[in-house]
């Protein structure tokens, strides 16, 4: 409302000033130039509120866009932070598994390992706590033929079989090694045989 009253006041003042200048101006060839300049002044006075409306409107639109962008970026940062934390955790777990595989393969030559480590990760403090470790073992060495004993007295054949403990060749050594490098108890380590 103030802008309209200011516009009307400016317009009326300009018209009064123009009328006074026309009355004072001499009646010669300069009068048409004076009228031209006064007309330009009147047009500029009339266009000023329209230009200011567009410029303020543009500023208002720009301010709203900036406010929206800030809120969007803020929301996006929160989502990105969660996504980045999840990506960091996944990368950490993948690297931990790869490093475990590499250490096992260096320690136990001729075997391939596939680790699956379950752990809780605190990205802020850069700490982790290993809950359980599953290790798959592929043994490329040639297996010895197992000894077959036939007990003829009770007419039953006993074939030397592997017990659960001996299912993977060197399982005990692998568990001991993992206890040392991962600081985890043997009961939380599961070792299984993988097919080639």
UniProtKB/TrEMBL annotation:
<dbReference type="Pfam" id="PF09581">
    <property type="entry name" value="Spore_III_AF"/>
</dbReference>
<keyword id="KW-0472">Membrane</keyword>
<feature type="transmembrane region" description="Helical">
    <location>
        <begin position="33"/>
        <end position="54"/>
    </location>
</feature>
<feature type="transmembrane region" description="Helical">
    <location>
        <begin position="6"/>
        <end position="26"/>
    </location>
</feature>
<keyword id="KW-0812">Transmembrane</keyword>
<protein>
    <submittedName>
        <fullName>Stage III sporulation protein AF</fullName>
    </submittedName>
</protein>
<dbReference type="InterPro" id="IPR014245">
    <property type="entry name" value="Spore_III_AF"/>
</dbReference>
<keyword id="KW-1133">Transmembrane helix</keyword>
